[in-house]
Every structure is written in C-alpha cells, then in structure tokens.
Design a protein that fits this description.
The chain has helices spanning about 15-20, 25-35, 55-60, 75-85, 120-130, 145-155, 210-215; strands at about 45-50, 65-70, 90, 105-110, 135-145, 160, 165-175, 180-190, 195-205, 220-225, 240-245. The strands form two sheets. A seven-stranded mixed β-sheet has the order 3-2-1-4-5-11-10. A four-stranded antiparallel β-sheet has the order 6-7-8-9. It is an alpha/beta fold and about 250 residues long. It folds into two domains: about 5-145 and about 205-245, Vaccinia Virus protein VP39 (Rossmann fold, 3-Layer(aba) Sandwich); about 145-205, N-terminal domain of TfIIb. The protein contains seven helices and eleven strands.
C-alpha cells in the first residue's frame, strides 16, 4: 500500500474472501481498546486506520468511534465506502499524510506496515502517527516478522481454496529484508472455467530491537505480543505493538 498505483487494485474484489475469518483479530483489538483506551475530551472519540483496505477493521469500531480510513487502493476504498457510508476515506500514501486533525486511536493492521519496504519510511510513519494522536492516544499495529517471511518463502508456493476459486501465493526473498509476494487468483467463472488475476506485492520486515528503538522516541511501548496474548519469541510470526503517545 505504498504508492497510489497499487497492486491491491487488481484483487480488491477478492480481498474479503481471501482474507477469511477476522473474528480473532476483531476480538483482540476490541479487548485492547477496552482495556487501554483513554480519552481526555467529552465528544465522540476518533479513530484512524492506515491501510484500511475494504474497511473490515473500522466496521467493528463504528459504534464507538468516528471513523477515518487511509488507503492507496481506489478499488479497496470503493468497497470500504459502501460498507461505511458515514465514514471518511482518503486515497493517500500513509508515509506522508497530513489530515489537519488529531485522533484518539490509530490502527495499522494485517501487516500493512510491512508493505513499506524502507525502514526510513517506517520512521516517517511513526513520527507522523505521533503528530496525529491526541494526548494519551493509542497506536496499535502488527507486523509479519522476519521469521515468518523467511518461513513462507521456504515453503512457497502454497495454494488456498476460497469459494470455488483458488489463490496461489509464491513468496521469494529479494534481499535481507525484502520479499516479493506473487499472488495468482484463479476465479471460477462457471463449471471448469477459470479467470486468472495476478499481482505482485512486496513486504519488508526488520529486527524487533530496531523497531523498538525508533518507536521509543515517540511512544511508551505497553506491550509487544502475539494475537493470543503470548509474549513474543524468536519464533513469533505475527506481532502486535501496543503503544501510547508520550
């Protein structure tokens, strides 16, 4: 989700089906918000999601927050707007957005930040999130770890079935931190007929110590953990960073 010309535009129509069941993530985020959220003002709190995709994460927050989403995929935003017609969506590059507004909660989920391949841009994002948060604001994001990307590359390609269609994922390591995801969707168009849609998406990940060092400039890191609540380890595949603005 790095530039305005986005690989997700090709597969926007399949995204929700391919993503599958997100109830565990929904439960995790809602529990963290309930446990840690604080607001210093009386009006309805505001939430922003970076890389909001088709709006699924904002959907489960709609009764608690005013909602804003940013994504660079026009196709994804079109679907999000249909789901949440009263919410505000911006087609922007979230490395350098400026909304002239502050939020109480900022989310960046489903390894969205991994799509930013340069760590210098991760730094820009952390600083930009800080400038868009109200006092005591929460920043919650997750990453695919280097361990996970290395593992997926080692077992690729893999195939998943959804509905009567198929997704083939082939991940290749390009350098120490960057991996290319080749996605082929074979959409069943009736009987034994299939239509191929293909796209390439790059992801990067970095050492946890390096991420923590940069985050600590702006935030108090409350927790780094797996979705189950398990503490991070060298074998963790997906980690959540729960941060509060200093």
């Amino acid at each position: 989700m790095t530039g305005l010309k986005n690989g997700y535009d090709n597969i926007a129509g399949f995204y929700d089906s391919v993503l599958g069941d997100s109830r565990e993530t929904e439960k995790y985020i809602l529990n963290k918000v309930k446990e840690l959220f604080k607001s210093d003002h009386q009006s309805k709190p505001e939430a922003l999601e970076l890389g909001c995709g088709t709006g699924n994460n904002l959907l489960f927050l709609k009764n608690k927050f005013g909602l804003t989403g940013i994504d660079s995929s026009a196709g994804m935003l079109k679907i999000a707007q249909r789901k949440l017609p009263e919410s505000v969506f911006h087609r922007k590059d979230f490395r350098k957005f400026d909304l002239k507004k502050k939020f109480d909660l900022i989310l960046c989920l489903y390894d969205t930040i991994n799509h930013i391949t340069l760590f210098s841009d991760w730094k820009r994002i952390f600083g930009n999130v800080n400038s868009h948060l109200n006092k005591n604001g929460l920043f919650i994001f997750d990453i695919n770890t280097l361990h996970k990307l290395e593992f997926i590359a080692s077992v690729s390609p893999v195939m998943n079935k959804f509905d009567n269609s198929y997704l083939i994922v082939n991940v290749k390591k390009l350098n120490a931190n960057v991996f290319n995801w080749n996605l082929k969707v074979f959409e069943n168009t009736g009987g034994r007929n299939f239509k191929l849609t293909e796209t390439d998406i790059r992801e990067s990940s970095f050492e946890i110590s390096r991420i923590k060092e940069e985050l600590s400039k702006y935030f108090r890191i409350i927790k780094i953990e797996e979705e189950t609540g398990k503490r991070m380890s060298r074998n963790s595949e997906r980690l959540y960073f729960i941060c509060r603005k200093k």
